[in-house]
Each structure stands twice: as structure tokens, then as C-alpha cells.
Amino acid sequence: DVKVTQSSRYLVKRTGEKVFLECVQDMDHENMFWYRQDPGLGLRLIYFSYDVKMKEKGDIPEGYSVSREKKERFSLILESASTNQTSMYLCASRDPGQSYEQYFGPGTRLTVT
Amino acid sequence: GESVGLHLPTLSVQEGDNSIINCAYSNSASDYFIWYKQESGKGPQFIIDIRSNMDKRQGQRVTVLLNKTVKHLSLQIAATQPGDSAVYFCASRAGGSYIPTFGRGTSLIVHP
Fold it and tell me: Taking the CA of residue A82 as centre, how many other CA atoms within 13 Å lie in the half-sphere pointing to its CB?
């Protein structure tokens, strides 16, 4: 089974802090994604990565950056956390050669105070 | 641009009833659709998919129907069980796109 893990389930940070959210997948998937999930808004794509060292902006990249130095790991960085970045963050991976299905991690609930 | 929405934010059913969750999409170029289930405290999980060259696909206790004429798809769950309580998302892909578009989710509540 594909396993996507995220470094923290719950995180509380202060405004202005630099925040790192880590995601690791164990199935050698090429594509990885970061979403945020807010009530009533569904899943919104922040960034995605086709492959190692490649990244593309999604629908809401402002205030975020990403890093993909190794195939299995995709990091989301909040350069200076703000209260409007309080949300659930979901990482996903996919093997485009196999299917269009995305495999999601359990999510990180980030609170910025 | 593409938008994908669900008709109702919450659906309450009795255990044993059949559930129908609806989804509308706007992009006529959408050629592939997926339903995901998200249980409390977990990430979304794949349930079933359907390509635009089909109008029906069945899985175990689930059926997805696709009506391309009105750009609508539905997820039917037979004999709904308490374990089916979750948020259900539809997602669509416009032909050739890498990125799916997700709907906002419908919360299914199953009463014992």
C-alpha cells in the first residue's frame, strides 16, 4: 500500500515564524502536491511538483514556497506565518504512469496565533 | 475556468438506506472523474472513478453515474452503514491537465 506521511498532525506557531511542513511518500511517485483545506472551500492547490527539483504554482501560492530535493520528500514552507494561514494542510502523491488517483497523507492542522 | 461543486453540503440518511451524493462540473472538456471519501481526522481516500466515455461504473456498494449532457455526476451508496459517515468529494480533470479540480465536499451523516 502507498503510504504518505506528514511530519506533524497538529502544529501551533506564532505569527511571523517560519514554518516547515514535511511530506514523505514511500512508493517512488513522481508527482507530489500540497493542498490546504478550509470549511466550505474544499481542497485548494498550493503547489505541486512533477518530479525532483521541479515545482509549479497552484491556485493559492502566495505566502508559501516548496522544496523537493529528493523524490520521496516534498516540503511546504511558510516564510512568515500569518493567522490567515491557519488551516488543514494535505499532502498527496501520484504515479502518473499508473493512474490519476492521488494518495493523501493524514493532514497537518496548523494554527497560527 | 473549471469549477466543480456539490449540490448539498450535508446529507443525513438512516442506516440501511441508499445515499445519493451529487456533483456538477462546468468544464465540458472534463474527461475523468474521481470520488474521494474523507473520514474524520484522515486524508481523502479514493473510492471510484469514471471516464467520460462511460455513463455508469459500479464498485462494491457504490455506483457512479455520469451525465455529460448536463455535466452532472452522482455517487450512489447502497445500504448505507455508519462507517460510510464522511465527507465525499468529487474531482474532475480537463483533458490533458495534470491537475484535478475538487468540489467542496458533501458531509454524509448516517444515523443508526
Answer: 5
